[in-house]
Amino acid sequence: MQRRRLLVAGSLGLALPAWAHHGWSSFDQDRPLYLEGRATKVMWRNPHGELELELPENPTLPADLKQRALPKQSATVDGPGLLAKAQLPTRRDRKWTIELAPLTRLQAWGLDEIKPGTQVAALGFTFTGEKGDPVLRAEYLFVGGKVYGLRSSPA
Question: What is the pTM of this model?
Answer without folding.
Answer: 0.84
